[in-house]
Amino acid sequence: MRGKKSPSLISPTGAIKLMTHAMMGAALGLVFGLALVLFNPTVANLLSHGGHSAATVFIITLVTTFAIGATLTGLVFILAEDKEF
């Protein structure tokens, strides 16, 4: 009979796994933003006319959205991994 193992989210390893997923999401958000600016001239034109604040809001929005999504997805993966026998 197996002993009860502790949930991995509460351990330091679980926190590191979640931070890793958040960093991967932030990197994907930056890459997506760069690709969007390079391949869509309308977005590049809007950002050039919007000034520094428009570019800052654009990047922060993309990075935050992707980071939150990747963190939640990582949370689901970690919880599903804990339920496997």
Automatic annotation (TrEMBL):
Protein name: Uncharacterized protein
Transmembrane segments: 54-80
Organism: Bradyrhizobium japonicum
Record keywords: Membrane, Transmembrane, Transmembrane helix
Domain of life: Bacteria
